[in-house]
Design goal:
By secondary structure, the chain is mainly alpha-helical. It contains 13 helices and five strands. The strands form two sheets. A three-stranded parallel β-sheet has the order 1-2-3. It has a two-stranded parallel ribbon with strand order 4-5.
Length: about 325
């Protein structure tokens, strides 16, 4: 009976590189907090990651490392369902069905497809184009009330809703139409080198982003080198992207308001402020890195988590797939 009253949440993250402070403050910290209020399902979206070419041994390591990191952050596999997407076959199965209810035209409008096909012009594959139908399957399989996503993913969530509505209009009430969830502390962390761009793990300038697992000395160096301005005053202001970003990070980590931060650094220089931000981030990430080191070394534990998570997810996922396919007329 437990959990039946709780609203449900589904989200996934791609194991496509080292997760950053942006991923943490913008998405993953909320995932952890949401476990208290909601019945959560979280997946490592490895199938999505092969829309761009991955080197097999690196890819395998990244899947394991992303799972270990989610556990280290505090995703509790007893409370939430945590699994690896490719280990639950219903995702690809339902994605195929949904792709037959998705129009070429609507997929062509996706900005991520346009961006990524420009970036990887030598590999504009069908998977990259069909990506939103797989994401729609990820979501609709688990009938979540809410899907926490960053602004960049809203268009994909919208298409998942459109597909669900379209399918339900033909076959009756099969899928729940999910709502986006805009986190209360939805920090958008910007690049430390070009604060008009978001902090992104695919930025070739490694000083622009902080990885959750970066060593303390690297974190401090990156903050000390962060681009600011020449005003030398720690307070939020129009066009002061660099300092606004550092204030946003410090605020997200310490819980202090922008006004309290301005008061704390009244009369002090940027050097002091950058050091304080670096120290706060180091202390926030230290226990995560320590837990991560233990978990990544414990292969047996990780495998047990994968197995249990996939079994739990597969039960729900298969039941939805079966229902949808029966409605279409499959003998299943
Ligand atoms: P890439 O660098 O390959 O574009 P990414 O770092 O943007 O990847 P994603 O895997 O696309 O990361 O995003 C995972 C989640 O983290 C999404 O919900 C996304 O909105 C969020 N996120 C990513 N970067 C930031 C950021 N700089 N600030 C806040 N949230 C972020
Ligand atoms: N497309 C997302 C990852 C993702 C996802 C999902 C998010 C795959 N499936 C389902 C929410 C729900 C990304 O690249 N950030």
């Amino acid at each position: 009976m437990e959990n039946t009253q709780k609203k449900t949440v589904l989200s996934c993250i791609q194991p496509s590189g080292a997760l950053t402070l942006g991923n943490y403050l913008g998405a993953l910290k909320n995932w952890v907090q949401m476990q208290d209020e909601f019945d959560c399902t979280y997946a490592v979206a490895d199938l999505h990651a092969i829309t761009v070419r991955q080197e097999p041994s690196k890819f395998r390591a990244q899947i394991n490392s992303t799972c270990a990191l989610l556990l280290a952050l505090g995703i509790d596999p007893e409370k939430s369902t945590l699994f690896v997407q490719s280990q639950v076959p219903s995702h690809t199965q339902l994605a195929w069905v949904l792709s037959c209810y998705t129009q070429f035209g609507e997929l062509s409008r996706m900005t991520q497809f346009k961006d990524k096909s420009a970036k990887h012009a030598d590999n504009v594959n069908l998977g990259l184009f069909a990506y939103p139908t797989l994401m729609a399957a990820d979501i609709l399989l688990y009938k979540p009330d809410f899907v926490p996503v960053g602004a960049d993913q809203k268009q994909h969530l919208e298409i998942a809703r459109d597909i669900a509505i379209r399918f339900n209009n033909i076959y009756g009430d099969v899928f729940k139409v999910p709502e986006p969830y805009i986190p209360k502390v939805g920090a958008r962390v910007m690049s430390l080198q070009d604060p008009q761009k978001k902090m992104s793990k695919s930025d070739e300038n490694a000083n622009a982003w902080v990885a959750i697992l970066d060593k303390p000395e690297d974190i401090m160096r990156k903050f000390r080198r962060a681009v600011t301005d020449s005003e030398a005053k720690v307070c939020v202001g129009e066009g002061r992207d660099g300092i606004n970003n550092l204030i946003g990070i410090y605020s997200a980590v310490t819980g202090k308001s922008a006004d309290a931060i301005a008061a704390e650094f009244e009369g002090k220089g940027y050097g002091d402020f950058k050091t304080a931000v670096g120290e706060a981030v180091i202390e926030e990430l230290r226990p995560i890195r320590e837990r991560y080191e233990q978990i990544i070394a414990d292969k047996a534990y990780l495998e047990e988590v994968y197995k249990k998570g996939a079994e739990r997810a597969a039960r729900v996922a298969f039941s939805t797939t079966r229902k949808a396919m029966k409605k279409v007329g499959f003998v299943i």
